[in-house]
Design brief:
By secondary structure, this protein is of the alpha/beta class. About 40% of the residues lie in helices and about 10% in strands. It is built from 21 helices and 15 strands.
Length: about 550
């Protein structure tokens, strides 16, 4: 309403200036009046168009942003590289996401902007036996181990966890509607399932975090009945227990009270206007065995749907303790999403974003090797999350040990995010990360849903084309030996040669020296090291749960 009033006043001022010029024979007033009227008409168009969120929220003046982008690409790059939560995407990657979301080909003149001679530069090798890109449907990965009654075939690229409350209802709807169009999954984030998640029927991965939003008792403990009621929805295809996230590992989620309106409060089961801080750890379990038991509990309550967990790796020993707990219980998660420390967030301490947690490449290879080493890799699928945005990102992560990928920030770009870095203030200029209805209206679901769909489809197709160019027939043929890294200005080597890779069951028979200490210190009954426990506590607990 305020925007319409301002545009109306501009039109009125222009008309009045033209009238004044005509009655006083002041030609310059006529000229000024015509210009002002034209600006007013531009403002009217800005208010009613649905393509550009920034001009829809900021009629007339919003065009300055696009003008600056056209005349000075360096200005655009500066804003992208300095106004980003977490490790930033470079301009080339960001622009590629925008192009794909808008249905463009994402081609760039004059070649790469990468320094191919820099230490750390990575690439894959094409083949003289290159294949044409397959015409078949996008490949799928089956989530569902031996204890899963209702497996789910997940896409190679999916919407990573972003909660309603952090994002606007329109943003959630655009993401889910895009997922419905493309047949890929949409992770709900820890904010629970809202009406915006169910409005368009896209597949959901229901996230259960330490705050248990949407399935909590008034005291904040886990509520079996409330969980089952949501998990049994046909739209919910899998359950993900959030242990930690890359942007702020060791901390719970944070939602400022200014964003907790009546609708958000209802979805989460919290009071209106209260700043919501999740506990750093889960109240329902405190040991590796307890986690495995909690996974089994959720699998039963959901009617046998795939259940896994998301984790940013910190201690290698603690994850190995979880592996030992899987072996002792004879049960494992159906999937594990590895979240890299380079992930971003709308509200997190800078020190945590920059210096806490293991980067995705190292974490992904470690989790893959650990599961191979204990003989569980065939039944546990691995997802990769953290700065996944392009087709080559998908290919690289699969070479490093992943089966599928999740993307958050690139999906936000697809629905119009300009990285204004105001996520926590409730004043997002493009309606993505706000609960202000007047700002959220700028994000038009019917437009942005197609951008989400187009971005995901073109990115996966790019990954398929890269695989075909490598002379391979499927993603299953990717391996560490297919990915190269420059280790000094004159030498490149493959991931197979650069890193140690375990053989199936190797940790159970003869752990390598680099793994031996962590494996020996890992205890299924505790996240503490074996050497720190009382001798009576070192034997694995045989009872169920933490009791």
């Amino acid at each position: 309403m305020k925007r319409a009033l301002v545009v109306g006043l501009v039109l009125l001022a222009g008309a009045a200036t033209v009238y004044l010029g005509a009655t006083t024979d002041a030609w310059f007033l006529d000229a000024v009046g015509v210009v002002v009227v034209l600006l007013g008409l531009v403002g009217v168009h800005d208010l009613v168009q649905t393509r550009h969120s920034i001009t829809r929220n900021y009629p007339i003046v919003g065009h300055l942003r696009f003008l600056l982008e056209h005349i000075r690409p360096e200005i655009q790059q500066y804003f992208v590289e300095t106004n980003t939560a977490g490790t930033p995407f470079d301009r080339e990657t960001r622009d590629l996401v925008y192009d794909r979301a808008k249905g463009n080909h994402g081609e760039e003149p004059f070649g790469t902007e990468r320094d191919v001679n820099a230490v750390g530069y990575e690439f894959v090798a094409h083949s003289m036996r290159a294949r044409p890109k397959p015409d078949s449907a996008q490949p799928r990965v089956r989530l569902g181990g031996p204890h899963c009654a209702r497996p789910y075939d997940i896409a190679l690229l999916n919407v990573s966890a972003m909660s309603f409350g952090s994002l606007s209802g329109n943003a959630i709807e655009a993401l889910n509607a895009g997922a419905a169009l493309g047949g890929f999954a949409h992770d709900t984030g820890e904010g629970s399932i809202s009406r915006h998640h169910t409005a368009h029927g896209g597949d959901l991965v229901m996230e259960v975090a330490s705050g248990y939003f949407g399935c909590r008792t008034p005291e904040g403990r886990f509520d079996d009945e409330a969980f089952a009621a949501r998990a049994e929805l046909d739209q919910v295809k899998a359950i993900s227990i959030k242990i930690s996230q890359g942007a702020k590992p060791g901390l719970g989620g944070l939602l400022p009270g200014s964003k907790v309106n009546a609708e958000v409060a209802e979805a989460r089961g919290v009071p209106i206007g209260t700043t919501v801080v999740s506990p750093p750890t889960h109240p329902e379990f405190s040991t590796p065995l307890g986690l495995v038991d909690f996974i089994d509990r959720l699998r039963g309550l959901s009617g046998g749907k795939p259940v896994g967990f998301k984790i940013c790796i910190g201690s290698r020993r603690e994850f190995l303790a979880i592996c030992k707990a899987m072996l002792e219980r004879g049960s494992a998660p159906d999937f594990i999403i590895v979240d890299g420390s380079e992930g971003g967030t709308g509200a997190g301490p800078v020190e945590f974003e920059d210096h806490v947690g293991m980067p995705l490449t190292e974490a992904l290879m470690f989790v893959h090797n650990a599961l191979v080493g204990v003989g569980l890799r065939p039944q546990v699928k691995i997802g990769a999350s953290g700065k996944v945005a392009t087709g080559i990102d998908i290919v690289k992560r699969i070479c490093q040990g992943a089966d599928f990928t999740m993307s958050a920030r690139a999906m936000m770009f697809a629905i119009g995010c300009i990285q204004a870095q105001t996520c926590h203030t409730n004043t997002c200029p493009v309606g993505v990360a706000t609960q202000d209805a007047s700002r959220a209206r700028a994000l038009v679901v019917d437009d942005k849903m197609h951008r989400v769909f187009q971005y995901q489809e073109k990115t996966v197709n790019s990954a398929r084309q890269i695989v075909a160019s490598m002379g391979l027939d499927s993603f299953d043929q990717l391996s560490p030996r297919k990915l190269f890294r420059r280790i000094d200005p004159q030498v490149t080597t493959t991931y197979q040669e650069l890193f140690a890779w375990l053989e199936p069951g190797e940790l159970l028979t003869a752990p390598p020296e680099a793994w031996e200490r962590d494996w020996r210190e890992a205890v299924a009954s505790s996240f503490e090291a074996a050497s720190d426990l009382d001798p009576s506590e070192r034997r694995p607990a045989m009872s169920r749960g933490d009791d």
